[in-house]
Design goal:
The protein has 77 residues and is mainly alpha-helical. It is 51% helix and 10% strand.
Length: 77
């Protein structure tokens, strides 16, 4: 997952990050973050699969995570 590599590099520079994934990729994400010394890094997990959702349903699901995304990007570590 290049998003893990990118987020680790940004975090090293003091730029907060979070990643939006679907549930099918949760274990892979956690494994990669552990390998980079950042176990437990923040992410937003959407249901899997999402490719069959209508634009309206996907919008509803993602907008439902807005507060959590803002919290993850603005909380002090």
């Amino acid at each position: 997952m290049c998003s893990v590599h990118t987020s680790v590099e940004l975090e090293k520079r003091g730029i907060p990050t979070t990643i939006v994934i679907t549930s099918a990729f949760r274990n892979a994400l956690e494994h990669q973050y552990r390998g980079k010394g950042m176990a437990g890094h923040a992410c937003i997990e959407l249901p899997h699969p999402i490719n069959y959702l209508s634009k309206e349903d996907l919008s509803r699901i993602t907008l439902g995570h807005t507060d959590e995304i803002v919290r993850q990007l603005t909380q002090s570590n």
